[in-house]
Amino acid sequence: MSLITFLKFVKHNLFKVNWLKTIYLNFKMLPFRQAVYFPVLVGWRTEFRDVSGKILFDDGLQLRPGVITLNIKEGPVATKHEHFIVNVSGTILVHGLEVHFFAGMTLWVNGCLEVGGNNVFGSHSIIACMKNISLGYFMGCSWNCEIYDTNFHFFRDLISDKVIKRNGKVHIGANTFIGNGSIIGKGTYLDDGCVVANYSLVNRSFRREGKNLLIGGNPAQVLMTDFTQIKEDKLFNGKVEAELAKVYD
Q1: Alpha-carbon gap, residue 51 to 72, rounded angstroms
Q2: Which of 47, 59, 122, 194 has the most neighbouring CB atoms within 10 Å?
Q3: Over 80: is that where the pLDDT of 148 sits?
Q4: Residue 1 forms part of a structural domain
């Protein structure tokens, strides 16, 4: 990182970051050789309920401060100094850079959470990973979304007298987008390029239906094929949206 880049970074983040918690989390959850780069920045009002787990970056990634942020970015529906809960006794595998957990979230990882990179998780969302959740590159969700790989409790089918399996892997592919208020439940499989309409409940595999689907409803179903979100050329810059708005709004 050049001196100019570093000074710009300090200018934009100096008062947004809780530096004591940032130092603690990085050296607690990362190897020393990675922690010294402070790749994870932690905002104010972030509660550490459990940070006994690990954050593992793929070898070869060029680490720098803030490639992961917790409770730093506010988004359109959050206020300053939102309460953010971190409960990570498991492992977070990071395959790429720029993973941002917006203000007011709950991050609960007992199992293995995989993130591809260039991921955005909107304010007040919840990620609860008891076994395995895999999220691809440029996967993102809006505010008030919930992603679970578990029912949390055990249930019994009284006809067959079988106990229903509590956990089920969640896979969300690359270049997918989850609309606000949606719930992604255990056993969900979404292939690359899919879009989930807001306030949808997705709780099954859509592997057979393929890629680039518009999915919506409660329970969710395929609403349209050959459909996908237009992505920014660079995360968060807003240029693509602004240019499209001039023509189509």
Answers
A1: 18
A2: 194
A3: yes
A4: no
